[in-house]
Amino acid sequence: MAVYKLKTPISEADIRKLKVNDVLYVTGTIVTARDQAHRRALEYFKEGKPLPLSLEGLAVFHCGPVMSKQGDKWIAVAAGPTTSTRMDIFEDEFIKNFKVRVVIGKGGMGKRTTDAMAKYGAVYGAFTGGAAILAAKAIKNVRTVEWYDLGMPEAMWVFEAEEFGPLTVAIDSHGNNLFTDVQKTVEENKQRIYQKLGLSP
Amino acid sequence: MDTAKIEEVAFNILKQAVIYLPDDVKQALKKAYAEETETGKIQLKAILDNIELAEKSQAPVCQDTGTIIFYVKAGDKAKNLGKVEEALIKATKKATAEVPLRPNAVNPFTGKNSGDNTGRNIPFVNWEITQGSDIEMTVMTKGGGSENVCMCGMLVPGEGIKGLKKFVVDTVIKAGAQPCPPTILGIAIGGGADISMKLAKKTLLKPLTEHNPDPEIAALEKEIYEAANMTGIGPMGLGGKTTVLGVHVDFAFRHPASFPAAVAFNCWASRRASALIKANDTVEYLTRKLKW
Question: A81 lies in which domain range?
Fold first, then answer.
């Protein structure tokens, strides 16, 4: 288990160094995107329309934050991760088209995303679900918000962060997926549990 | 009972619930941290640090401030009961703007977010009429991640409690990392599909230190607790010893042909707060003293 501190824009070479179970802290630009922002970004790409900002080398964060406007300045009040599996249907195309290097969320992602991360060079960093204030504390500046018409949780928030983490590298760019490994162990344990409870499989 | 008082108290318990986790939950998380593996410890440390930071900065412990659900135990002689729901809606709007809470009420047809956590049937109010003139109000702010894996099954009556155990174990395994483990499980059987889920969810309001008074049901709670923690799902599904912090079981009598079973999950950020409003408008805060 190694600890890495990377700054955006992150290069493919740097991301390829990371292995599952490593701990990562990201400094630089982190952009939130949930279901709606993923969908719209891919629609824009299909139509040949540019995104509000280039995501190359940045971190995309599955997060619907609580934001507060103080004067004309947005403040991130609480900004923990949301369940990433909902974005599984978009993420392979998202990584391929926009070249994001880090996907931050909770709960892990599936094979399509794992394959895309291996192919194009990206990792999945698991941030502790619900640790919203810890996350907000690392967000030093809210640069802008795009697509606010999608609502506060679904909008694309552009954060400047300092040592955002700890992120457990749960999918690396070499085809390893920590969540899939845990699932295998859990399946094995299931049989032991059935036995203990006197259940037939 | 003054409706302005009801609104004020509802606002206060809502604010308390989203900022401060109940002591029983904090204690259970601290105990889990002490016993966890290296990977589990990283997650639980982040959780414990986050709880402390939330209290210090008076901010919601999780950005998903949930769907807002009230449980109102109203004395049959309490005044203004017909105006309670209106007061709860006002309190919800005020808390959304002032705490602040994340606007989490979306019209399922248009996809439009109301922006203030209210809408048709939301906040949802569960009523219970008791004798007397007091009103006891409890709020639960229920996160979406843990709600998405709640499950109701119409089991085979012939399989009995064994069928229930299998259903719960399978449901916990299927949920995996999604409900933000370590979770709390609320389980209920009988009644009907709706009744079992209502009871299951309501048990999530019980402190973790409280077990079912029926020793046989308490033993079942313990058995399911141990089984769930044998899965190895662990904190945040990254592997480890603590998958659940506690299990509550409740029941209703069932139809001879039916065996409804419901499993409701609450994430580690198990948010609830209660207050008692007496007829003379004095208030007792039951989960935590009122102090900002």
Answer: 3-176
Task: Please check whether residues B11 and B124 belong to one and the same domain.
Answer: yes
CB-CB under 8 Å, A108 with B237:
yes
Bridge partners of B71, per DSSP, are B126, B138
Shortest Cα distance, chain B CAs vs residue A139, angstroms? 14
- The pLDDT of residue B291 is 85
Q: Do the domain assignments include residue B154?
A: yes
Q: Using an 8 Å CB-CB cutoff, list chain B residues near A106.
A: 145, 177, 180, 236
Query: pLDDT tens across B263-277, in order?
Result: 999 999 999 999 999
Q: From B266, B245, B236, B272, select the one nearest B44 (Cα to Cα).
A: B236
What's the Cα-to-Cα distance from B183 to each of A124, A139, B171, B270, rounded to whole Å?
23, 27, 13, 8
B53 contacts in chain A (CB < 8 Å) = 133-134, 137
Q: Which of residues 163-192 of A touch B (CB under 8 A)?
A: 166, 168, 170, 178-179, 181-183, 185-187, 189-190, 192
pLDDT at A130 over 80: yes
- What distance in Å separates the CA atoms of residue A37 and residue A30, rounded to the nearest whole number? 14
Interface of A with B in 79-118 (CB under 8 A): 79-80, 82-83, 85, 106-108
B97 and B240 share one domain: no
In a domain, B152, yes or no: yes
Q: In the prediction, which pLDDT does A201 show?
A: 74
Q: Contact A129/B145, CB-based, under 8 Å?
A: yes
| Distance in angstroms (rounded) separating the CA atoms of residues B16 and B27 | 18
Asked whether residue B257 falls in the same domain as residue B222, the answer is yes
Q: For residue A66, what is the nearest residue in chain B, using CA coordinates? A: B102
Domain count along chain A: 1
What's the rounded mean pLDDT across residues A124-152? 95
Expressed as residue numbers, the domain containing B139 is 3-20+61-143+271-285
Token pair listed for A199: 């259940």
Sign of the C-alpha dihedral, residues B19, B24, B26, B28?
negative
List Cα–Cα distances, A71 to A153, A161, B149, in angstroms: 20, 21, 39
Summarize the confidence of residues B71-90 as an average pLDDT.
97
* A38 is annotated as an active-site residue: yes
Alpha-helix residue ranges (DSSP H) falling in B20-83: 23-35, 38-57
What gap in Å lies between CA B252 and CA B257, rounded to an integer? 14
Residue A103 lies in a domain: yes
Q: Both B101 and B178 in a single domain?
A: no
The verdict on residue A132 lying in a domain is: yes
Cβ separation A190–B177 shorter than 8 A: no
ipTM for the complex shown: 0.91
| Domain membership flag for residue B26 | no
- Give per-residue pLDDT as tens, A28-75: 999 999 999 999 999 999 999 999 999 999 999 999 998 999 999 999
